[in-house]
Design brief:
Distance between the termini: 58 Å
Strand content: 5-15%
Number of helices: 4
Oligomer: single chain
Order of helices and strands: HHHEEEHEEEE
Helix content: 10-25%
Radius of gyration: 23 Å
């Protein structure tokens, strides 16, 4: 490899590593809605709001005497079948039946033509999606799927 390529690869590596080291993802508002008595300390005395959030924690100074920098609630996720036919990822084979598809743990909708009818669920965070984009499991006729 020539020197120019090594320099470019080095810069890419440094940028990638610095991005990983910057901190965790920010918690959602929903994850930070905790009763004061449920807060678990996530910082140190005198931590700033910016430092706290950079560590992936919640920050709220409204209640004195309890941690202001605290661990967020775990994200609640669930399986959902995508409504948009163009986002479907094939889970079956041509001619698969609804029963066979559901036995595999996948979603099934026999419309429209030209897209997979048996397709994988998507994991979505509760409260963070548009109901028009993702629907709960639906059977071939469009009604709720039986357990």
């Amino acid at each position: 490899m020539d020197l120019k390529a090594i320099c470019v690869l080095s810069v890419i590596l440094v940028v990638a590593l610095s991005t990983l080291a910057e901190g965790k993802t920010l918690p959602s508002r929903c994850q930070c809605k905790l009763a004061p008595r449920e807060r678990r300390n996530c910082g140190y005395p005198g931590i700033s709001a910016a430092e706290c959030r950079k560590a992936g924690c919640c920050f709220n100074t409204s209640v004195p005497g309890i941690p202001w920098c605290f661990a967020p609630k775990a994200k609640k996720v669930r399986k959902a079948c995508p409504n948009d036919p163009h986002t479907r990822i094939n889970c079956g084979f041509p001619g698969i039946t609804a029963k066979e598809c559901e036995r595999k743990g996948c979603c099934f909708r026999s419309h429209p033509a030209g897209v997979p009818w048996c397709f994988y669920h998507r994991m979505v965070e509760e409260g963070s999606f548009n109901e028009d984009e993702v629907a709960q499991g639906v059977n071939e006729q469009g009604g709720p799927r039986s357990p």
